[in-house]
Amino acid sequence: MLKRTIALLGFCIASSANTHAELGEAKSATATCPKTGVYLQVLGSGGPELNDKRASSAYVVWADGVAQVLVDLGNGAANNMGLAGVDISQVPIVLLTHLHSDHSADFAPLIKALFFTDRQTDLQVYGPTASKFFPDTETFVQRFVGEQGVYPYLQGFVNGNARYQIKAHNLTPSPQVQTLDTGEVKITAIDAEHGPVPSLAYRVEIDGKSLTFSGDNGGHSDNLIRLAQGSDLLVAHNAIPEGAKGVVVRLHMLPSRIGEISRDAQVKQVLLSHFMSRTVDQQAQTLAAINAFYKGPVEFASDMQCVEL
């Protein structure tokens, strides 16, 4: 009887675990990526909600074990950088797709942590220009660590007194592809069409590999298709389910639109991220909507996951 009870209990636990996985709960993943090759690591695959057991949007691009680019800094990103082994004293570039808090909240923890490193080179931070309800990226940085900012004791990093400086750059969202002056890593950007929110999609090219980040993106034009053309990986945000209506469709792509864009851009693989309660348990429906147009590999992201390009 006892053996039977234990067996039944084990079955229930296993069934419960499988159910959670099917519902899209964040799965555990290896914390560190391999030291050779180009990898995308997901530092945060969630959105602005707090009950999804995920960090908010954040990614790091690795090349031969060196973190080359950080893309977005949503809440939870700073902690996961530590788990991933990111040497923040060496990361040269931060790309902010837009300034919603679930994409930028961990900027301040990053700067504070840098205080305790031996970093000597400037940190380049790129992001969008301003609108009525959002500052531009230069002002965003100043409001965190400037003389009149929330953390004025860190102002040395923007007023010339510290050993390195935060160099903020404003990019105007435009339907024309912009090329950033970023040295060996080629980075291009385009308007992400996130409703009234100034927002950018980015393409990163390094060591012969390319990956495109949709950011929060309405996908209403061919902007993302042109930016992502031929990418080894498209990171697409899955914030709304197929069949969604209303204002959210101005802000985010339907899964079917992700499929159309992936097909037309001829990307090699798609990684879905930025899950919310309205999409996290819709994986089967989401995949079906995408596969109606795109026949390549599609994966659902989890925090700390490494994807080889």
From TrEMBL:
<dbReference type="InterPro" id="IPR001279">
    <property type="entry name" value="Metallo-B-lactamas"/>
</dbReference>
<dbReference type="InterPro" id="IPR044094">
    <property type="entry name" value="AtsA-like_MBL-fold"/>
</dbReference>
<feature type="domain" description="Metallo-beta-lactamase">
    <location>
        <begin position="55"/>
        <end position="274"/>
    </location>
</feature>
<keyword id="KW-0732">Signal</keyword>
<feature type="signal peptide">
    <location>
        <begin position="1"/>
        <end position="21"/>
    </location>
</feature>
<keyword id="KW-0378">Hydrolase</keyword>
<dbReference type="Pfam" id="PF12706">
    <property type="entry name" value="Lactamase_B_2"/>
</dbReference>
<protein>
    <recommendedName>
        <fullName>Metallo-beta-lactamase domain-containing protein</fullName>
    </recommendedName>
</protein>
<dbReference type="InterPro" id="IPR036866">
    <property type="entry name" value="RibonucZ/Hydroxyglut_hydro"/>
</dbReference>
<dbReference type="GO" id="GO:0042781">
    <property type="term" value="F:3'-tRNA processing endoribonuclease activity"/>
</dbReference>
